[in-house]
From TrEMBL:
The chain crosses the membrane at residues 54-74. Residues 92-293 form the VWFA domain. InterPro entries: Aerotolerance_reg_N, UPF0353/GerABKA_families, VWF_A, vWFA_dom_sf. This is Ca-activated chloride channel family protein. Keywords: Cell membrane, Membrane, Transmembrane, Transmembrane helix. It comes from the Bacteria.
């Protein structure tokens, strides 16, 4: 809710120009030559009383009363606006983020994961009417946030993403399948997955029934009418990868390694589901990719605004009348003999 002070009839505030005009006329009147000339004012130097010195207060009170009354005529108001966003054509989106150790590679600033978290947070906040969820995966996958419009919670979990929380590895199929499972009952007009990885599928799913291949997960996405956008994160050539840990400090040691991204697989997933594949080689291109996806998947939004007007002219009119009444009372009592 926002509150703004405004005037219904602001043009009436031009009447405030009367205030400096009245002050000018009063000063000019005081500077006019006296009607009676005398040789000296010495006999009257100590004759002015305290009331005489305070007499200009009557003029100040009248000007203040006039000011408040003019403001009241201009109809001051406090306007409070509330807005309700209504959309029956929202999009359900799940971001599937690779949190394997290689996401700490420093070919993006300060590293791949931190760069991704920044653009994912911005993307989420720019889509207030969409339900967005978050899945993290490496050698296994976990749903961090189910589909929700509470993007504050989503942003908090995006910021908490880190490596070495899950089993090491890159299980692209499992991450994709986990997201599909959370979209299977969605009634949204469009169901979207944004899959991010910086490597190659490293899980031997043929020997473990707990895993699912990326190809099988893609087939399920196609069957459920789920579109997948895939993003490969990593520069071309070599990048500083975490390869060891200092035994004394526990800090990671980075060594230049060849960047390997299974682009054919990512293109296969995107192409079969109706999505697109993108390659992010630096922070700028990663940000641009999210902007492109944001433009490709637009939600129709109806924003309804409600305005509540609180009239304030009564308060200003009341103060104007009080000051005017006070001036009249003083003029006819304390200052009666001086007027």
């Amino acid at each position: 809710m926002m509150g703004n002070f405004e005037f219904q009839n602001p043009w009436l505030l031009l009447l405030l120009l009367l205030i400096p005009l009245l002050i000018f006329l009063r000063i000019r009147k005081k500077q006019s030559p006296p009607a009676v000339k005398i040789s000296t004012l010495k006999p009257f130097e100590n004759s002015e009383s305290i009331l005489g010195k305070l007499k200009p207060l009557l003029f100040v009170l009248r000007l203040a009363a006039l000011t408040f009354m003019i403001i009241a005529l201009a109809r001051p108001q406090m306007v409070e606006m509330t807005s309700t966003v209504k959309s029956d054509k929202g999009i359900d989106i799940i971001m599937v983020v690779d949190t394997s150790l290689s996401m700490l590679a420093k070919d993006l600033e300060p590293d791949r994961l931190e760069a991704l978290k920044k653009v994912a947070e911005t993307f989420s906040l720019q889509r207030p009417t969409d339900r967005i969820g978050l899945v993290a995966y490496s050698g296994e996958a976990i749903a961090k946030v189910p589909l929700t419009t509470d993007h504050r919670v989503l942003v908090e979990e995006i910021r908490k993403l880190q490596t070495r929380e899950l089993e090491d590895g890159t299980a692209i199929g499992v991450g994709l399948a986990t997201a599909i499972n959370h979209l299977k009952d969605s009634k949204a007009k469009s169901k979207i997955i944004i899959l991010i990885t910086d490597g190659v599928e490293s899980i031997d799913y043929t020997n473990d029934l707990l895993y699912i291949s990326p190809q099988n997960a893609t087939a399920i996405a196609v069957d459920r009418d789920i579109k997948v956008y895939t993003i490969g994160v990593g520069t071309n050539g070599r990048a500083p990868f975490p390869t060891a840990e200092d035994p004394f400090t526990g800090e990671l040691i980075f060594t230049p390694q060849l960047v390997e991204i299974d682009e054919p697989l990512l293109k296969y997933i995107a192409g079969n589901t109706g999505g697109q594949y993108f390659r992010a080689t630096d922070n700028e291109s990663l940000g641009e990719i999210y902007k492109q996806i944001d433009q490709l998947e637009k939600t129709e939004i109806n924003e309804i605004k409600y305005y509540n007007y609180t009239e304030l002219f009564g308060k200003y009119l009341t103060w104007g009348l009080i000051l005017l009444l006070l001036e009249l009372i003083l003029r006819r009592t304390l200052f009666k003999e001086l007027t």
